[in-house]
Amino acid sequence: MLLNGIRRRIRRSVAAASAVALAMLAWSVVSVQPAGADTASAPLARSTVVGVHNAYNPSDYTYLAQALDAGASMVELDAWDDIFTRQWKVSHDKPTSNVNNCVNASSPADLYTGGANKDLGSCLDDIKYWLAAHPGKGPIYVKTELKAGFQNNYGMGPSGFDSYVNSHIGSVLYRPANLLGGGYSTLDAAAKANAWPSRSALAGKIIMYVIPGTVELGNPTDKLHTDVEYSTYLKNLYAAGDVATATTFPAVLGAAGGDPRTQYSDTSIRPWFVFFDGDASTYVTSVDTSWYDTDHYILTMTDAQNVSPALNDTNPPVPDAQARVAQLAKDHAGVVSCDWYGLPAVLSEVLPRG
């Protein structure tokens, strides 16, 4: 009798423990699923996505479309203004050559065929046709580093850039004018009002933003950098009633405390910046990033692998990379940039921000 009583008590204890475990599992499922759903239905600035630094690198992907196949929500392209051919060349360090994985697709069927090493417009076409082949996907951020900046005297200034981009992907762009929505006088006012559409509403769309290039920043004769030049142009387009033609959001480059737009002596261009881009380690260790989230700005944190403890540059363990993305999402990143091109389980993540 005593032995039977002990057995019954053990069985009840095991059953109770199992019930608790099942309840905890059910709670975890319930708690996780709504967060994922929220990233689709909530405004764009309430989510964190992952992107690939220099996604055009042919040693990482044979075709640019493969970066999108891997789940990347942001691709970075380096562009040079070749004043001799009037083309925007895409390469890391060849100003007059295309060295990339773009194939100049003219339909979804072309994404994985033909020769590579095409210009920026071809890279943009590849993204457009990938989206056409994958209804419901997107939006895709295209971060463009203008390596040597604009060359307005040669027809390759902001206006020429917009004409070029419009001719390739104008039909699928989410533009500064879309954020303004006809009711806001600056991008800053629109962002603070959280006027961003939801991710689901932006399916099929491309969102472009530009940063100054390394060569431009190192050129002592270049006194007008990409961020200042494009934001001034955008402000003037709005004043002239022509802002609908603008294709691109200018971004403030560099992680810094406080509001980094105070670096611009022309205070009238400051409200035209709602994209920010800088080093993840600096943001995490030295900057209060909560205000970017509070004001619904898009913050890109670069070199995610270098945040302490540093991870492998290209192929860390998936759980470690996922934990890093979650950490930066909590620290208010809107876009996490990395070189983890072979980790689709990481690149495809979309997390609630903050």
What coarse outline follows from CA principal-axis ratios? Answer: globular
- Strand-residue proportion: 15-25%
Task: Give the integer mean of the pLDDT values.
Answer: 91
Number of helices: 12
Share of helix, binned = 25-40%
Cα separation of the termini: 58 Å
**What would CATH call the class of the largest domain?**
Alpha Beta
Name the poorly predicted regions. Answer: 1-37
Q: What structural category do the secondary elements indicate?
A: alpha/beta
What is the CATH architecture term of the largest domain? Alpha-Beta Barrel
Assembly state (oligomeric): single chain
Order of helices and strands: HEHEEHEHHHEHHEEHHEHEHE
What integer value in Å does the Rg equal?
23 Å
Structure description:
The protein has 354 residues and is of the alpha/beta class. The protein is 37% helix and 16% strand. It has 2 domains: 1-41; 44-352, Phosphatidylinositol (PI) phosphodiesterase (TIM Barrel, Alpha-Beta Barrel), CATH 3.20.20. It has helices at 2-41, 64-69, 120-133, 158-169, 176-180, 187-192, 214-217, 226-239, 280-286, 290-294, 318-330, 344-347, and strands at 47-52, 74-82, 87-90, 140-146, 206-212, 248-253, 275-279, 298-302, 335-338, 350-352. Residues 1-37 have low confidence and may be disordered.
Keywords:
354 residues, alpha/beta, TIM Barrel, 2 domains, 8-stranded parallel barrel, 10 strands, 37% helix, 16% strand
